[in-house]
Design goal:
This protein has ten helices and eight strands. It is an alpha/beta fold. It has one domain: Metal-dependent hydrolases (TIM Barrel, Alpha-Beta Barrel), CATH 3.20.20.140. Strands 1-2-3-4-5-6-7-8 form an eight-stranded parallel β-sheet. β3, α3 and β4 form a beta-alpha-beta unit.
């Protein structure tokens, strides 16, 4: 358990005021989460570095995250946000890309009402700018987006795509069949990689048995070379601690060879984000 990379974590400070989704109704995580809160947990779990991911649809938050990355060496990269619909998006992306800690961008697709948004021709200049600056597209999608994401990938074959949280499978008793087909098609027909993260929140449980069928399918269709482990901390604290998710994921990956586990825990993130 050495040399690990957490491919998906967040920081936020409530007084910034740009986290519209974060309300008192989410009481367990309705507080500040800053580097000093995470560092002890990284030490206890042998995680050396992280990818810090946006949690607010503002350029101001992306600037805040990049400043945190400048001040804290364990943050290996930042996945930020831009307004992809804005005419200025290509120039904004070019400006942000001058910061070597920016490794990707993430539109909050799950919150966009139009399921077909990704296919809009108006997005092409922004996506082409991402490609030219070698940035990763983190796809925060739901199962209903998977067919669209496959079409999107075909439109931009040079774009590196990461599927966040396994596309949020329905893990609270619903059938997994439609999700399995959709995520399997992504794995089989695109070059996308997938994050093994966020699953405890979808299941509302950290019991390995509740997650096993989902994880086994992701391993089957993507294989270790296209999977990367992430904590989704502090969102995971709605269900379990950072360390508990680490233990659960160890159980779920126990059947793999050491080199396969290391690929999921570090290699895929390092290769995908260029860190």
């Amino acid at each position: 358990m050495t040399g690990r990379i957490d491919s998906h974590q967040h920081f936020w400070r409530l007084d910034r005021g740009d986290y519209g989704w974060l309300t008192p109704a989410l009481a367990p995580i309705y507080r500040d989460y800053l580097p000093e809160h995470l560092v002890p947990q990284l030490a206890r779990t042998s995680v050396d570095s992280t990818i810090l991911v946006q949690a607010a649809p503002t350029l101001a938050e992306t600037g805040y995250l990049l400043e945190l990355a400048r001040r804290h060496d364990f943050i290996a990269g930042v996945v930020g946000w831009v307004d992809f619909d804005a005419d200025s998006a290509p120039d904004t992306i070019a400006t942000l890309a001058r910061n070597e800690k920016l490794v990707g961008l993430r539109p909050m697709i799950q919150d966009i009402p139009d399921t077909l948004w990704m296919l809009s021709p108006e997005l092409a200049p922004a996506i082409e700018s991402m490609i030219s600056h070698d940035l990763v597209f983190d796809a925060l999608v739901l199962p209903r987006h998977l067919d669209v994401l496959r079409e999107f990938s075909a439109l931009y074959p040079e774009l590196r795509i990461v599927v966040d949280h396994g596309a949020k499978p329905p893990l609270r008793g619903e059938s997994l069949e439609a999700w399995k087909a959709g995520i399997g098609a992504i794995a089989g027909s695109t070059r996308a990689v997938c994050k093994l993260s966020g699953l405890v929140t979808e299941a509302h449980s950290a019991e390995p048995a509740k997650l096993a069928a989902c994880v086994e399918h992701l391993l089957e269709v993507f294989g270790p070379a296209r999977l990367m482990w992430g904590s989704d901390w502090p969102v995971c604290e709605l269900v379990c601690s950072y360390e508990e998710w680490c233990r659960t994921s160890e159980t779920l990956l126990a059947k793999l060879a050491d080199n396969e586990r290391q690929q999921i825990h570090a290699g895929t993130a390092r290769e995908t984000y260029g860190i």
